[in-house]
Each structure stands twice: as C-alpha cells, then as structure tokens.
Design a protein that fits this description.
This is (2Fe-2S)-binding protein. By secondary structure, this protein is of the alpha+beta class. It has helices at 22-29, 82-90, 99-112, 118-124, 134-149, and strands at 2-7, 10-15, 48-51, 54-57, 70-72. It starts with a strand and ends with a helix. One FE2/S2 (inorganic) cluster is lined by residues 37-40, 42-47, 57, 59.
C-alpha cells in the first residue's frame, strides 16, 4: 500500500505491505533506530512511539491502522524537552534499551496530565525495564513535571 507518513514533522512517502508493523517502517525504511524491538508482542513497551501524542506499541501496530496521525519517535524529542532534561540530569538509563519507550511514555503522560499523582505515574509508566531502573524513572518523571511547570 502507498503510505504517506508524518514522522517528527517530516513527510515520507512509502510503499509497504499493509500488515507491516509500524516499528519496521520506522526502523527499516526510515532508519530511525532509536525505537527498539524486544518482545514483539505489545507487552514490554520498548517499541513505544506517539501517534498524535498518545503512546502506541509500534511492534503490534500495522501501518494499515494509521489515520494520518502525526508520529513522534525518540528522535523527535529535543534535548531541551523537560522530560529529556530530567532523564539527562538524573542519568536514568542503565543498559538504555528500554529508555526511548520510557521517555515517550513520560512525554505522553505529561502532555495529558501536567501534575500526575504517584498512582497515575505508576499506571502510565507501564513499560518494562530489565535493568530495574524503575525508581530512577519515577524520580525522572517527577523532575520532568517540576521542570515543565517552571516552563523549562
Ligand atoms: S517490542 Fe513492542 S511491546 Fe515489546
Ligand atoms: S535500562 Fe536496561 S532495560 Fe531498561
């Protein structure tokens, strides 16, 4: 099928099979390798990207489901974004494999809820981290909230 994609504010025109998972279009066709493959079953969140600001697990999302949404990958998050700043300041990643998905989940959370409660953070930040960096991720979400409220 012919695909017209807006990814990180750039337009791409492609021709791919309708059942191709969005992940492989992003990685193989667009060469944006910050989005990771892990479980391939929609369970871990390593492949998280944003569609119109909402998280989606791109390994399990066929491109035929797209409806002209704007797609954001980790490459579309500037280093001065409050979430990126917080992650950087707190040195969150261990191996780093899950982190692009974690960061995009935090971006989506704060866009929808400027001051999430601990329970709301826990519910939204449901990506897996094999390194167990959950305490650092929680601290970084809290710092992101603070930085965002100060207009960082
Ligand atoms: S690789 Fe997509 S959810 Fe795990
Ligand atoms: S930092 Fe290693 S899997 Fe999360």
């Amino acid at each position: 099928m012919k695909l017209s994609l807006n990814v990180n504010d750039q337009q791409y025109n492609l021709d791919v099979d309708a059942d191709t998972p969005l992940l492989w279009v992003i990685r193989d066709h667009l060469k944006l390798n910050g989005t990771k493959f892990s479980c391939g079953n929609g369970l871990c969140g390593a492949c998280t990207v944003l569609l119109d600001g909402k998280t989606v697990r791109s390994c399990s999302y066929p491109v035929s489901n797209l409806k002209n949404q704007k797609i954001t990958t980790i490459e579309g998050i500037d280093s001065d974004h409050p979430v990126a700043q917080a992650w950087n300041q707190l040195d969150v990643p261990q191996c780093g494999y899950c982190q692009s998905g974690q960061i995009l989940s935090a971006v989506a959370l704060l866009d929808q809820n400027a001051n999430p409660s601990d329970a709301e953070v826990k519910k939204a930040m449901n990506n897996l981290c094999r390194c167990g960096s959950y305490p650092e991720i929680k601290k970084a979400v809290d710092l992101s909230t603070e930085l965002k409220s100060k207009g960082a």
